[in-house]
Amino acid sequence: MERFSFVHTADLHLDSPFAGLKEVDERVARLLQSATFKAFENIVSLCIERNVDFLLVAGDVYDGADRSLRAQLRFRDSLLRLSDAGIKTFVVHGNHDPMDGWSATLKWPDHVYIFRETIESVPVQREKKKIAQVYGVSYPQRDLYENLAAHFRKEGEAPFHIGLLHCNVGTETGHKPYAPCSMEDLLSAGMDYWALGHVHRKTILSHKQPTIIYPGTPQGLNPNETGPHGCYVVEVERDGGISVEFVPVDEVRWVTHEVNISNIKDHDHLLAFLEETSHRIQSQARKRNVILRLALTGRGFVHHSLKRPGFIDDLTSRLREIHAHDDPLIWIERIEPRTRPEVDIAARRQAEDFIGEFLRVSQNLKEDDRLWPMLREELSELISSRRGLRFLKMPDDEELINLIEEAEVRGLDLLLGGSMK
Ligand SMILES: [Mn+2]
How far is the CA of 60 from the centre of ligand 1 (A)? Predict the structure, then answer.
């Protein structure tokens, strides 16, 4: 067989509104507005630089079913650049951009193939020789709970078979179970490579026979999509061997960094320490724009200062000022207090008094996950209220533990009153 290469991406979410950011300055807002487009532009440039044979886009091209005209035009313009370079593109749509959403009537470039609502297979040719066969299907509508992978079957003679699908493999992905399927479904379809989309964190489910990959979002879309985001370059050798390389293409990188305040002695020290941390993270990002969340942890004198009205806001502004003219940009999104008061909690927990009992209850809640359904039950009334529906969602396990910890610290502060200040 012929040696060839391709790039695999998914979940572009073009024109994502970057929900969940409370306040953003103008420079950051401008950068975010174009970030999803620029990340995709970087992928197109990568395809051309590496001279790959084709690009695979595994769903969620657009952020919403009501895809903006701007997003569709920018997507088409990018694909035109690829098409002009003789590089083919194969696209499926997912739950965020199903076929029943609004589409402008645009003419797509010659080398672009968009899969429709029934599974099709398309040969990929290079100089009249078939190098691969691509199988794909798009979501007709958003809420699709049918196992699509189970209908993929390799057919005919081709040197290499690729499944292109937006789907949820297994149950532990942290994403909605659209087009749910199992590893067994993927393994039994006879594909050599599964180009998946849906899970926003890059994940290699299987290295070979077949190779199964979620490339993740090429641009992190919210403060939880931290670290490098990009796409995969895949090289297929003459003997069918596959090598994959992750290439970061993100324009803006979300970083959450924990800072332990236990050894901080005064406020000057705190400021200098945070400044030094942000500078270090900036240089580690290697000329990428960074949006930084600093989580302050540990137990120390700073804990009580952080509770002073306006203290965290002032600290945040000060750090933003220091970096105000940096290019690439580093922006302190938030300083999150997860600190604890200077108190011997272990000793307090042993004590036969009300505080001891309170601490034992909260520890029990953190450690015994059988109690969590009860906690969620308590929360459900708040979350399903009219205001709650707009602003809240049910916490996942990690968030629930964080909530219990916050409640423990707050409860302890209230119970201890002024005595520990
Ligand atoms: Mn997605």
Answer: 5
